Amino acid sequence: MDTVRFPAVLRSVRARILFSMLVVTALAMAIAGAASFLVQRERTLAQIDERLQHTVEDLQFVAAGDGTDESIPTSAVELMKTAMERVVPDHNASTVALLDGQPALVPAADVSFRLDDDPEFLARVAGEADDERVVIGTAAAAPGILRYVIVPVHAPGDPSTGQYVSAYNLSAELDELSDAFAAYAIVAAVSLVVIGGVGWAVAGRSLRPIRRLRETAARISASDLSERIPVQGNDDVSELARTVDGMLDRLEDSFSAQRRLLDDVSHELRTPLTIVRGHLELLDPDSPDDVREVRELALDELDRLGDLVAGIGTLVKSRRPDFVARADVDVAELTAQVAAKAAAFDSDRLWRIGGTAGLRARLDPARITQAWLQLAENAARYATPATEVVLGSRVVRTPTGEQLEFVVADEGPGIPTAHRERVFERFARVAPGRGDDGSGLGLSIVRAIAEAHGGTASLRDSAAGGSEFVVRVPLDRPEAGIGSAPTAPRSLPAAARPGAAEDADAEVGSSAASVHGLDADPAAEPGFDELIGASSRPAPRERPQRADRNPRPPGRPEGGTR
């Protein structure tokens, strides 16, 4: 028996491409339509719950009157009648007022369905009604699936018990959504036909030779990803070439990102290693105090090295929320600690603390130390030799609130105004040869740290004629019991009292008419309440601090650039 062979057109690349394209497009349309339907359905249900909640609030307002005793309802029937007159049911909604379990009042306006015509629903309401709280539920009734709320109504001196019932027809609300989705399905089907015709025409062009594609791809190597495949025309082979070129673009970007990552690692490890080496070479082994202090500093720097190695990946993505781990920090102690570490960069200079903010603030001490030492290293490298470098912290008031500044000011040639913004860019050089021995990431990392704290990094002229670098962050003062506890569920409005609408928290039970028990059961009906939770980040462990010392390291630290 001969093997059954499909027509050549069905086995062609043209047909396979078109078939795959239509399948993917149809699947995407189906997923998008279904997702939109589900999202809109949930939104509709949530809006119905909000409307029911507003009904409860409207009933509160009616119970409160207009602030005079004459306007306060004196009986449950009067309160519900006033509510019927003032609260007009929405589209696909209806209301009924029950007195002692029997229908007493119905809306005068035309409604799409009537609750008093359904005895089974009324019997269910009578069984579920609670004199002390609002009841929310869903039930199948004659008009369709109903979402309803039962609000108990009492009045002092009136022995009767009233229930104000408001319900929405979920079936009618969702039918409108289903009609819209059916229209979407028709439009999607027509779109698939149009896409199929266009795709067939485009994919029907002859395939061009792929030799140029193979030859060009063979010349591309890991050391040189700059070459691209020449693209001519708009046929399927040309699209393949464009796709390969796009892949090469992504690969080149990936390799460049890896190189930048290595620069980040070398740049950030160089500064703490220089500090540790400088103090270790100046260590007096016969002095227990000196040994203890150097040991503490070395452990501190090793901890910071570990943090840098572990977090170097997130350093590139400094916009992520977990880039900064805030803790309660003594700014004065942090200033003294950074000044002691910075002195190891160049002992020929006078390192001075120009001012200290004597307060505590919530910030990331490791990141601020990293940025501050980077600025100090730049000052040691580029300022006039044997001149003074001033480090300090201060609080300034701005139109947006209090700001905490960390400052490094030097004496030297400074940076031209035209280059002051550019120096914070990645791999920026102010002039040829300046900073060539560094990775060019120092000030860009400083800016990233400042921005991660919600602040800025800037440069201006110092009082001594050099440069003054400022890391400014919003002042976040610590408070007792720092950390966010989970927020309790948000319940329905508190009970309303006639004549006391302005006192939402007042106690129910006065001599005026009231709507009782307006706190719905959140466990039974989660659609009415939302639980807002917050978590707090544990503060990092405090590192030992080191007393001021001004040793002379064996040589200036490498790395970094201004």
Automatic annotation (TrEMBL):
Compartments where found: Cell membrane
Catalytic activity: ATP + protein L-histidine = ADP + protein N-phospho-L-histidine
Pfam families in UniProt: HAMP (PF00672), HATPase_c (PF02518), HisKA (PF00512)
Record flagged with keyword Manganese: no
Keyword Ubl conjugation: no
Every HAMP domain range: 204-256
Transmembrane segments: 17-39, 181-203
Domain Histidine kinase: start-end pairs: 264-477
PANTHER family, A to Z: SENSOR HISTIDINE KINASE TRCS, SENSOR HISTIDINE KINASE YKOH
Protein's recorded name: histidine kinase
Phylogenetic classification of the source organism: Bacteria, Bacillati, Actinomycetota, Actinomycetes, Micrococcales
